[in-house]
Fold each of these.
Amino acid sequence: MSARLRALLLHWTGAVPVLAVVLLALSWGRSLPIPLVVLVSCFLAGAVLAAVHHAEVIAHRVGEPFGSLVLAVAVTIIEVALIVTLMADGGEKSAALARDTVFAAVMITCNGIVGLSLLVGALRHKVAVFNAEGTGAELAAVATLSGLSLVLPTFTTTTPGPRFSTTQLIFAALAALALYGLFVTTQTVRHRDYFLPVVTADEVMDTEEHAEPPSGRRTLAAVGLLALALIAVVGLAKGVSPTIESGVAAAGLPSSVVGIVIALLVLLPETIAAVRAAKRDRVQTSLNLGLGSAMASIGLTIPAVAAASAWLPGPLYLGLGATHMVLLALTVMVGTLTVIPGRATPLQGGMHLALLAAYIVLAVSP
């Protein structure tokens, strides 16, 4: 082991993910007392911060938009594995788990991450500037997949309830994979310049932009530690979920609130990374993280649960209710009007955050 790699592992950003995974292994599947819940929560927060750090190291090495794509896809793959595991354990009561989780991710990313990034960027730099072509393509892809996967099942008539027939589910899964593959190709190959941060004439570049990219060895170490940190984030979030469920039940709140809390915890790395990018006037990077995470969540989760439904017990409910469809329609409309100019003020960020707040309030009080 080289001296640099040893120093990285001894630094808190290297030590915390390793210790968090060890704690996850020791606490997995056990009922946690309150002191252990506090300890798990502390390591969960540390793993989130470590994940952001290692994602930024990788982004500095590979550049945009690859950096934001790495974090979005890594979180989503682990989240998908968690969803399938919970569905396998939950039986029929988890029939709507994939739908609720994906929709929560869409609302948090498209309104929470995007709104917060626009608000921070506009307050710090007067106007948040981004590339309308790339951001518009991302939003259109999210809207298309959301409509095909989450809205249409409510209106199909082949099978009762908000669910697809087998043929329809196969089509939705293949469409999600195809559109996500086309989106990644567009973002990283054919039209990569549409997804790069817009550099304004009066922008002052910070020292990080001029720093030498990390070495290949350090980047590989960051990839491994990022994977460990994300596994710890998702696993520890699941570990504290019984405590969250007990608290939600004691407060008399609907069970869907638990899914929102877990989704907020899982998406913390992207949220922190997006806000930090917005502070540096890299709003396009923030939007790549937010909308890219929404796209990955739909494009990877729907095919995974479609394949898993062949052996999972119980039905698979994907269709949204009327209230959530209204919120999704408002999100797409407001997002479209925000994207068209390629510039945003704090007002646009506030509108997206208001939609997220409405989603949370209606989840608490349907």
Amino acid sequence: MSSNPLPPAPSHFQCGRFRFDLARRPLVMGILNVTPDSFSDGGQHAGLDAARRHAERMIAEGVDIIDIGGESSRPGSAALPLEQELERVLPVVEALRDCGVPLSIDTYKPEVMRAAQDAGADLINDIWGFRMPGAVEAVAGGQTGLCVMHMQRDPQTMQEDPVYTDVVAEVRDFLAGRVAVLRAAGVETSRISLDPGYGFGKTPDHNLRLLAQQPRLAADGLPLLVGLSRKSTLGAILGGRPPQQRVAASIAAAVCAAERGAFIVRVHDVEQTVDALKVWWAVRHETVAGANG
């Protein structure tokens, strides 16, 4: 018998100032990119006033978490200087910290993590899985929720012929390894969520295999955060349609992800996804009661 047994599966997800029961309806995370070059909505919400208006719209549509991103991670994107990322995201966090829903920061830079937490962020969403020097130390204390994502290589090279022997096993093992590092640093299990990293160093077939076998990815019952909204895999399925014409496919993908255990779905189209998940949840439980939370 192991002398260091694993902790029991969490019953809730601690997301900064907010606590979510893992038995509830899946959460919808709305994307708020304050970037000029994101693949689907670059430039649409850059600037504090535009970002605030979009956040208010998503809240009215029923969003559960708002994910603020200051640096594009689309394939081939260049790294953004630290000061420029801070200038983009911190005013938005400060303006929205009392909006009534958790604020997530999409960043891999430890300096941004620290500053965002100080400004009121509730979740750190890291495409690098807290592998950057100083990242684990930046988030180890406190109650901020963490999202550990898998990515092969980096945004500049990740889509250059990604190769796996067993994509599901490799992603699962990577996530489990990063969870072990965070736990060793003193991070409570209830603060950790996992993201398979759909589209980050994967072909469309890799992504579909991961989605089909998604229940294998949840280490020790930790919640899964899934982002498939408008991504190129959906475009490939639809014969090459551009991102703005992938809304219905994105909603279908969100429901597929929820059916396979996702607790958080990260989306561009909040209202439509909230509605779809309410219907799915009601059918699953054979009752209208509980569809809203």
Amino acid sequence: MQSIDHSTYEALRAGAHVLEADGSGDKVLRLADGRMLKLFRRKRLLSSALFYPYAQRFADNTRALEQRGILCPEVIAVYRIPSIERDGVYYSPLAGNTVRQLQGTSEESDSLRFQLGAYFAQLHEKGVYFRSLHFGNVVLTPDNHLGLIDIADLRCQKRALSDSKRLRNFAHLLRYKEDRQWLLGQDAGDTFIEGYRQALPSNRQAPLISRLRPLLG
């Protein structure tokens, strides 16, 4: 993590467009060069972010995902910006549209649901547990591949996720009303479940799907 002074920060953000902000200030900036600057603040005096800043977690998670062949943003630098009491990650965004942006517009909704099921199975088999999983964090690229964004709240482990972690991950996803309705409405959930099932090892399909189906029913 590189510490930068205020003049360097101002030069970096010159001409930037603010994409996200809250009462405490800017959160996500699209810079003049088309790249992104995501800013993190420590919300509590004592927290894990004191020892392991969220900006560094974001960068470390991109490396872990890349090692697993999972598409994600490309980190250029990680900054500490004392003048605004923020840490920042400077990165090239993942091109495409989020799945949430595509809801209600895609004529291939069933195909996308099936693809998402297979993709989530791939993530889980590769040990990726994304606690902030929702369809605003999953991108469909122009060449029809799926990837993850906003990945500070993500952990990668060496082994495939346990059944309990998979179910918790789906429970996180289904907290969002618009995601749940699009994914499961009018029996659409069967398509998603079938995509997930087919991407699992054959010996894991029946026992895991039997536990997953009631959650998605």
Amino acid sequence: MPCYRLDGLTPVIHPTAYVHPTAVLIGDVIIGPQCYVGPLASLRGDFGRIVLEEGANLQDTCVMHGFPGGDTVIERHGHVGHGAVLHGCRIGADALVGMNAVIMDGAHIAPRCIVGATAFVKAGFECPEQSLVIGAPAQAKRTLSDQEVAWKQRGTAEYQRLAQRCSAALVECPPLSEVEAQRPRMGDCGFRPKGEAQA
């Protein structure tokens, strides 16, 4: 993967984490245990520190960056959807950031919150724990139900399993020129979402 030391600081990836080979890590980046970093994610620790704590995921084309001297952090079991931008902010434990959301400097998304897709979270924003945060500019609209938090947790667990699957079985290969007869689906190849019975 594109991984670059800068000013003597080398990115750190825990052995149980999975970072896609097309993700880019620069400088002061720390990826913790059981994390997943998706294709084309950019983690630029060239000014401040970038941290993914245990079990966090950062999906395709996400960007993490920050100002000099600051930290941009996804806490334990944080979940960041495709295309999100995190700049100098903190995503609390077990929180979810929706696709294409933007979280600005000094913002703190509290634990167990869900930030809606395409939300724009202004610099310095704070919210209570277990809030639904939506809009542009974003606001905490209501308290999430325990069922909504459980839904988020199931999704995060799937990404933790995806990190294991990719570490064990993702192989670069040339494409086929045509669809094979009786082409299996993912569930036929041994993978099933948790809770789905094996045949």
